[in-house]
Design goal:
The chain has about 200 residues and is mainly alpha-helical. Helix content is about 70%, strand content about 0%.
């Protein structure tokens, strides 16, 4: 069976991928943006955060590849946090090497093992979503996250850069929260000593 590019596009956008990439995910993302849902699992919250950043970078939420790419970036983020994925911890260099090999264990895990789709289909869907990027609205945000000489088609490199950006923002937020808690505790103890 030989499908035209348009037929392949329609097929990819109509597949449910075992219920993981569906209208439910788009609806969850919509609710996330409106602040309606606060009880996401950690992984789902990270996926929503990544999807939000992808949308800021010009990706369309009407493309299945955008959500597949978000799952990829969440996987990269797990490795950056030092969380063992399937019992394996990768260094940044090992992770970059895996990301640059389209048939690496990383992609096998994300596409085949997590989503039960082919690796080629997985990459094709992401590449299709890259073709649909609205470049007019993303330049400033792209420079902020991906650097001055960014290339939107280099999605393995960009996945690493986006995950690194999110990791840094979250780490800073956690550190700020810890400082606020310490100040609050000191303030409370001073207040109780005065009274």
């Amino acid at each position: 069976m030989n499908l035209s590019e348009e037929d392949t596009y329609l097929l990819l956008n109509s597949l449910n991928f075992k219920g993981q990439i569906s209208d439910n995910l788009k609806n969850a993302y919509s609710d996330y943006k409106l602040g309606k849902v606060t009880d996401f699992s950690l992984e789902m919250a990270e996926e929503m955060e990544v999807t939000f950043i992808l949308e800021q970078l010009g990706f369309s939420i009407n493309e299945i590849g955008t959500f597949l790419y978000a799952k990829m970036i969440v996987g990269v983020l797990s490795y950056l946090k030092g969380i063992p994925v399937r019992g394996i911890v990768l260094t940044s260099d090992e992770l970059i090497e895996q990301l640059n090999n389209k048939f690496s264990q990383f992609y096998l895990d994300v596409a085949r093992n997590d989503l039960d789709i082919g690796i080629k289909t997985y990459h094709f869907a992401i590449e299709r979503s890259i073709l649909a990027i609205d470049t007019k609205k993303c330049k400033e945000r792209c420079i902020q996250i991906l650097g001055e000489c960014y290339d939107l088609t280099d999605y393995p490199k960009n996945a690493f850069l986006i995950a690194t950006y999110i990791y840094g923002v979250n780490k800073k937020r956690d550190e700020d929260e810890l400082i606020r808690k310490r100040i609050s505790i000191k303030s409370d103890s001073l207040t109780s000593k005065i009274n």
